[in-house]
Amino acid sequence: MPIPVILDCDPGHDDAMAILLAVANPAIELRAVTAVAGNQTVGKTALNARRMLSLAGAYQVPVAAGCDRPLSGALEIGDYVHGESGLDGPAFGEPAVPLDPRHGVDLMHDTLTAAAEPVTIVAIGPLTNVATLLRRYPGASDQIREIVIMGGSTERGNHTPYAEFNIYADPEAAAEVLGSGVPTTWVGLNVSHQALVTTDVLDGISALGTPLADLCVELLTFFGTSYQRTWGFEAPPLHDPITVAYLIDPAVLGHVRVGLRVELDGAHTRGATVADLHRRMDWEPNANVGLTLDRDRFWNLMIGAIDTLGSRQGGHR
């Protein structure tokens, strides 16, 4: 049976690829997409979610805009990576998927309430929507099977030296989700930096020969240029789709169960995730934390998804 999923995201180039993977693979039943402010403002991230669902032909999936700022503090966006639109690179037409009039958090709650079985939340942006859901609807946690999060790192950060962007953008929300009692699995930078979009990956996507493949190459090429300019990476890491790939094929991700904390107060480390990998602290293990990636399995799933959707649409170069 396919896994029912709510995808909470802030598209974003890597979020865009996660949407394609979630739509294409039959192991996932994508029931709703909610947008949060992060890589860009929430109006733009919701538009980008609608754009990618339209390209994927997923016209029936509802999309709603959620929280437009973190639980506390000022909004910081990732436009230095994703550009003015949040999906800079290719040109997009008007999306065919409409914007649901509900607030994203209400769409999440309605989707959970309507489900006959617990639903997995895949959260690949700041965790503001998810934390707000748990605050506003305390009973919602009973309908959540697991929250799979792209966030944090067991090593260093990207937005600051020790904080990964999604967690830095709303560390209070991340701490609340971690402490909620809902099972969580964390895919951090230490994992996603094993999923580099190298030349062979771009060549493999381009060889599919479809308009969708060409658009993905444009997206990932812009993304790579941003990474080269900002961090000096020769190839960018494709963070977000690993969460979806893990649900499709758990062997993609090697993880351990450890005590995890979110740093809220550090003058130089606010937003960092602290994983007690060597059991040095008296912390009860409270989260699954990813360590390793099966790169071949991951890219086979990702390129296969682009191929599947491109073939459905028809047309080749």
UniProtKB/TrEMBL annotation:
This is Nucleoside hydrolase. Keywords: Glycosidase, Hydrolase. Gene3D superfamilies: Ribonucleoside hydrolase-like. Residues 5-300 form the Inosine/uridine-preferring nucleoside hydrolase domain. PANTHER family: INOSINE-URIDINE PREFERRING NUCLEOSIDE HYDROLASE, URIDINE NUCLEOSIDASE. GO terms for molecular function: hydrolase activity. It comes from Nonomuraea marmarensis.
